[in-house]
Amino acid sequence: MSVRFTKDHEWIKVDGKIGTVGITQYAQAQLGDIVFVEVPAAGKALKAGGEAAVVESVKAASEVYTPVSGTVKEGNAALPDAPQTVNEDPQGAGWFFKIELSNPGELDGLMDQAAYEKYVEELSH
Amino acid sequence: MRYLPLSETNRRDMLAEIGAGSVDELFKDLPKKALASARFDLPKTMSEIEVERALGTMAAKNMNCAASPAFLGCGNYRHHTPASLDYIIQRGEFLTAYTPYQPEISQGTLQAIFEFQTQVALITGMEVANASMYDGATACAEAVAMACRVTKRNQALISGRVHPHYRDVTKTQMKFLDVDVECLAPDPYGVEDLIGRLTPDLACVVVQTPGFFGHLSDYTALGEACHKAGVLLVVCVTEPVSLGLVKSPGAMGADIVVGEGQSLAGPMSFGGPGVGLFATREKFLRQMPGRLCGETTDEDGRRGWVLTLSTREQHIRREKATSNICTNSGLIALAFSVHMTLLGEAGFKRLAELNHATACDLADKLEGVKGVKLLPSAFFNEFAIALPKPAVDVVEALAKKGVLGGVPASRFYPTYPELANVMIVCATETNSAEDQVKLVTALKEVLS
Amino acid sequence: MTLPATASGHKGLQFEQNLIFEQDTPGMTAVDLPALPTSKQRLGDVKRSGSIGLPGLSEPEVVRHYTRLSQKNYSIDSGFYPLGSCTMKHNPRLNEKMARLPGFAEIHPFQPVSTVQGAMELIDTTARWLTELTGMAAVAMSPAAGAHGEFCGLMCIHAAHDANGQAQRNVIIVPESAHGTNPATAALCGYTVESIPANDEGRVDLAVLKAKLAEHGDTVAAVMITNPNTCGLFERECIEIAEAVHAAGAYFYMDGANFNAIVGRLKIADLGVDAMHINLHKTFSTPHGGGGPGAGPTVLSAKLAPFAPVPIVVKAAEGYAVEEHAGFGAAKQALGRMKGYHGQFGVFVRALSYMMSMGADGLKQASGDAVLNANYVMARLSSELTPAFEGPCMHECVFDDRFLKGTGVTTLDIAKALIDEGFHPPTMYFPLVVHGALLIEPTETESKAALDQFVTSLLSLARKAKEGRAAEFQAAPQLSPRRRLDETKAPRRPVLRWTPPATDGAKQAAE
User: Fold this and answer.
1) How far is the C-alpha of C275 from the C-alpha of C265, rounded, in Å?
2) What pLDDT sits at residue C511?
3) Which of B21, B269, C85, C381 has the fewest beta carbons under 10 Å from its own?
4) Is B268 within 8 Å of chain C by CB?
């Protein structure tokens, strides 16, 4: 299925019961050079909107919230040693964690690509 | 007024440029009522000579330790300050600079901080140190807060051999947070058991070396027991000179070391300003409070220094910061670092040996005074003694004889009558053999 | 003209200087000590073994090292330092001289109180100046700096609410423009923070504040407002704000970071303030020392005074005494102890030396000149730069980056170009509510000539930016001891201490 977005600039791509989560191109650009990433450990239970990961640039720090509830299957182990991946490929290799969805219905509350693009455009005005 | 460069002509010209009729007009947003009612019952401007006279008179009312034999410690120590130290810290480029937020024009302060961080890490036996806290006591409170963040637990245990001010400041700082701080009773005989008190709910145990009553203890076994229980070992050092001779907290397994750097950073100044030392293991770096200076390069590839990992701090993280500290103790940290640099490895060890030897010499002499009993068997430059009468009275009587002989334990523990006769005595390289004889002679007279 | 490359790396009077660890002569020391007395060691089983790793240098090497380091610093002594909200005013050397009098420097915090009556008098006299200048009932002298003073004030507020059966109050309302220390301090008290936006004038909107107070009802513990605020403006509805806060059963904490703008003109007690810290290192000229030490005595209203932390100096007929224990005597309801010993005594000496030098009349003149200087700079810069708010400002003025729109030059670039012009940059990107902010605080200790030089440089930079010379800005600074430093590399791979270079043998073993 297609990618969904949150107002906090996370994206989630769902494949079966597993969703892959990261931050958007817009978010990485706002943060600037990312210097630190902390990803959640496998097995961690998360509630939609709860703090899941941390991302820091030189002069900003931000929590990454999970768009959906579920259990973390895997954190991206490559990120802590190469945080710049989030700048380089935020919606690809720069993913943060994979989560097994406990309530796929939550996806309906998220934005699709077009809605998110419109949302970002409004923010920059 | 000598500090104000504007002339009346300047002021007139500047008001014209602004388009205001008077300086008062610029204050038009201040409430009229408050402006009208303000009367200040305070003196008018004074010349340098007048200020020197007034403050000189005040200063002269104090009995100062440079002019009288003084054997006072308890976290604040009188050591000799090399002449070049005060010269260096009075250089305006250090004294009158701000926090080095513009690294291109603050490399001096930044490199000095980097060297300070390295020196603190080396003497404490730890991996990383920060750019300083306010003082040892507040650093201790920050260590407990950090231990709670690291372990996600909310109980702390403080040994009865920890400086009572460190204990009190920690308790106060945790007062409105969900943290239980248990403080053990004062331990002048060095008998408390900490290992038996470890529980899986504890975030940390706080100990001190040398202890408040002077004891030297090896906390290696405690450290091992702590780590088995997932508890952090916090070690306080109130007299860093001891680290030249005594096993480092890092070698004992400390997770966080905090301390007071005053003893190597210039005069006692009635206890402030001091400089809080804060060191820990690299794995806890992101939970550390305070500023950190790190190495980097500039656009031309030359080595340089910047403040770094700032996302932990209040100006970025706001309510989620590891601490609210902003201004720290930069200049005193510089003084500490300059002194360490002057001493070097050889001088630092030798200063520690000299302190210990002087204190042992004094201990030998005091043990010859009838009724005096030394409490710790192993100590560095300070030890508690039991007297045959209340220490407060002895100290006052000694002061009348021109000797500042020690600190009565009751000053810190007013509700422990069993400590009434305990006095804490310190000897450093500043106490000559003649000074020691004066103390012993006066003490004999007071006790007879 | 390109600069010649040198074999040494030095450039005339600009020296490259290695770390002390790279100048080690093993066994060397700059401190000669007397011979050891012959006594038997009593160290038990905790003697240190092995080497610590400290370098050995001689005295001339140490003095040269720090002299060269110092020359890489910008300082008030050497130039104009218009760092907004930091108050970089002249630091009189008389203050330093007074703090070094043996009767102040060489006294121990635990001498019998009878032997330090002069020290007690100094603390009491400093306290009297601070309470008289503010009109407040009492002052807690021990906080070590501004943020520590905020902590003191909020803890007193917490203690007062608890004592009045109002323990449910756990919300602090703070404007968005506040210093980061405000929310960080609130968190230390277990409080949660609610922000309120500024209005178009850069001030607190009374109606918005009232709505916020109503929304949170009896859970509001205090409202914390910097006044003059971080936009350099006086909150002209301050008294109404205090009334609204009090009507809601909360306390009014005024952040005194900018007290220097109003000192000697009004008493903050008349504004309805319950607590305010005073940065002695800002308003009262004690040196910033490259990051500290400061002092943050906190003045308190009569309602909060009983909760002030120990130690508390007490004046009695027979002389001064000091209460060092919460729960006893004058400290019956004290909230505890916030700092070791007697607070930042050495800083008190310096601040009192300054206050006595200035006098009440001189302090009033100082705040007048500080505000005059800021308004003058604002007026002169407004021809090219864009002020964020309408004046008059108080002791500092703030510009946004509208004047740079379309130039490709940022606020940061302007700041770095000012370094090449020989000035310390103003505070940048703060307050957060002003886009691309440049916050300029000249202070009263700058002459008109110094201000004119700065204005000339900044105006010429603004014109250069508008002429499309962005590349020159992006390369700045070029004349400082270092050019722009890589602030991304430092946190990605933190190197926070020196470590000995690996020896060839160790390198081979690792490979």
Assistant:
1) 18
2) 45
3) B21
4) yes
